Predict the structure.
Amino acid sequence: MIGVHMNNSDESNELEGKVDTNSRNKTQSNDYAETVEQKTQDIAASVGNLISKRRQIWEITLNVIRRSWWMILAIGMIMWASADPGVLNLFLLGISFIGRLLFAVLFMVVQFGALFWFISRTRTVVVKPGDDKQVTFDDYWGQPALLRLVKQWISLLGDRDKFVEMGGQYINGLMLFGEPGTGKTLLAKAMAGEAGIAFMSVEGSTFRGMFWGMDTLKMMTFVKKARKLAREYGACIAYIDEIDAVGMSRGGVMGGGQMSGMMGGGMMNGALTRLLYEMDGISELSRMDTLKARIRKMLGKEPVKRDWHVLFMGSTNRPDVLDPALLRPGRFDQIIKVDRPDRVGRKAIVQGYLSKINHDVAIDVDAIVADTPRATPAQVMSAITKDSVRRALFANREYVKQEDIDQAIQEQLVGMANPIEDMDPVLLRQVAYHESGHAIVQHYVMPDQRISRVSIVRRSSGTLGYMLPVDTVEMYGQPLRRIVSRIMVALAGHLAVKVFMGEFWTGATGDYNMARMEFRNLAVHGFFGPPVSELYRDVKELQFSDERVERIWVSLEDQIEKMLVEHADEVEALVERLLERRDLSNKEVLELLGKNSLQLAQDEGVEMESVLEQIGTSVEGLEYKRRQAKITASKVDSDTTKTTNS
């Protein structure tokens, strides 16, 4: 038993020894594998480091060669030339050739760049705060409502803080449109002077260029100048006069409505596109401002807050041709019509310009205002400050009189006097009868108008004479009977020549054109019936062979002839006075004429409105009145029938 036990113990020990040996062998194998793997990684890392070092050395070498290739080449050439004198001469010759080539290229580049810089400049007029040529709102008269609106926006140019705190955004553009001479440019200059900021003006056609793309370059230069002035003075008004030369619509017409020149300078779509872009980005920072902001940020400083603004302004006589993209909100936000001043506005304008000249204290301002209906501020300014002063100066006077202004106004309205010294007496008498006929009929059928002047002096406009009526009360709407009365006045001159000289003469073309235009006005306003037929689709297609028009025309001529015969003594008296004086004022004309219905009514104390209601009622062939009477009669018959049936 003991022997058996010992044998079993030996076997157990032997088994344990084998297990220990296997464990040691496995451990040694794992250690060896780890060692091999570590050595492999070390070798790979060493190789990678070696490759990386070689790559770095190669990159450094290439960088040195790139940066100093010219120096290496020069050293090599010098060493080569020192070994062979012929190579030195070749080297110097090459350097000389390269230098000349570079100079020629540089000269061409500079010359071409200077040329484009010169032709890309815009001819601008700059008004800075403090300049003597500034004007303010005190120099702008006659448009109080417009002035109030503009002042509101101008006040924000100088002080925008409260406006911005409320969340408001300042407008980018303000468009002025209206007839020539209504004061659009003057208003823009007054805005600049009132706000105490810079004002830069340019004419629209200035952006045209002889080369393609010059218009864009000029627009960029213009905006750059405006921004520079805005930074210097806090704000700048960039004003483009006659902006339709730049902003004409790009659609609907081939080439944007403009023919391109041989070098492409005729089209200005580039200028318009650039203007649209600049107006969209006018509040964005420029490249220089962006660079300055980055530098301040790197230095740990806050960026400078922008405190300047560019307000674009434009003016045009033709707003209908402007591109819609130019007029949308966000670009030209405010579109303002600068209209002709009314009577009150003209009085302020006349008084304003009279204050600038030496004049007689007895000048009748109301008479000047009455003689200038629908006149523009430019016409009033020219008549008072230019023509009247010239007339007074050459009349050896140191002040302006009423007659100087009256004659200056006539020159503005009908042209400069250009008399024919040796006109045939018969022709001169024919002109006198013609104008007297106008005056007589005007006096009696339109008593609510005043005859300002009658003249048989030829004018620069081409007319041999004229009769100038003005409204005593400015009317912005009127009854159709006044149009009929104007037709009678237009036809009266030609008929007066026939009645008193026995035959028709030439000289009625303008009068007949006026009569035809007034008949068109009657047609489109329903005088001949509802304007729904083909006849009224286009007023230019009105057929004057229409029996209704012809009947009224003939009827009016008959009445005019009767009136001229009835007042023949007045016609003859007026003709003789015209042949004697050649030019008659309102007072001189009224001395020769009888009292019309309005004057008689005023003598009797009758209200003017009741008299005006009777004007034109004697005109035969008034289809409108007959038609209204028929409508009224038919309504009465209808009501009577309904009552009877019930």
About this structure: The beta strands are 125-127, 173-177, 198-203, 235-241, 309-316, 334-337, 449-455, 466-471, 583-585. The two ends are 154 Å apart (CA to CA).
